[in-house]
Design brief:
This is DUF2975 domain-containing protein. This protein is mainly alpha-helical. It contains 5 helices and no strands.
Length: about 170
């Protein structure tokens, strides 16, 4: 019989899978029309970003803003993939392991990178919006939530590292 924690972990694994699939579909929804628009050289492909009208008049600006968006999409898919890997690796009989701590630490670095790209992209969009009226100043609508989340996940990684140390000490005592 499964414990309550095992049931919750199973539900969270399913949610992480749904999040991963959703992020991947969203990424494909942006990347395929972006690439397709250059292959066919038509504006018929809508990326859903509101930037498609820029392609004809300001190609370099369009490419740079879309680069930020695509980088963020790829990083978010990678974040969900990382979360799924962590949830699959967790063993409730011995939850603290160096591998989990390392995976959490790597995920915190990835979340930090997402936050930095959001801030850089927002700054660039704000700069461009002064010159080109089509570009929305808050295009990426990023804030400091990713930086805060990166800090929280990093602290969790350090707690897991300490848990590994305590678990090893406990095993040596017995």
């Amino acid at each position: 019989m499964k414990t309550r924690t095992q049931n919750i972990l199973s539900v969270v694994r399913i949610i992480a899978l749904i999040g991963y699939i959703g992020a991947a579909v969203y990424g494909l929804r942006i990347i395929i029309p972006f690439v397709g628009g250059f292959i066919t050289d038509k504006l018929a492909f809508d990326t859903g970003t509101g930037l498609d009208s820029l392609r004809e008049t300001h190609l370099l600006t369009y490419l740079s803003l879309m680069s930020f968006i695509i980088a963020l999409v790829i990083m978010k898919v990678r974040m969900w993939e990382s979360l799924r890997a962590i949830l699959e690796e967790i063993d409730l009989s011995s939850p603290f392991s160096l591998k989990i701590a390392s995976m959490l630490e790597n995920m915190s670095y990835l979340i930090l990178a997402v936050g930095i790209v959001y801030i850089a992209g927002d700054s660039y969009a704000g700069y461009i919006s002064k010159k080109i009226s089509i570009v929305d100043k808050g295009l990426l609508n990023g804030d400091f939530q990713y930086l805060f989340s990166a800090g929280v996940v990093y602290v969790m990684a350090q707690i897991f590292r300490r848990g590994v140390e305590l678990q090893d000490e406990n095993e040596l005592t017995v």
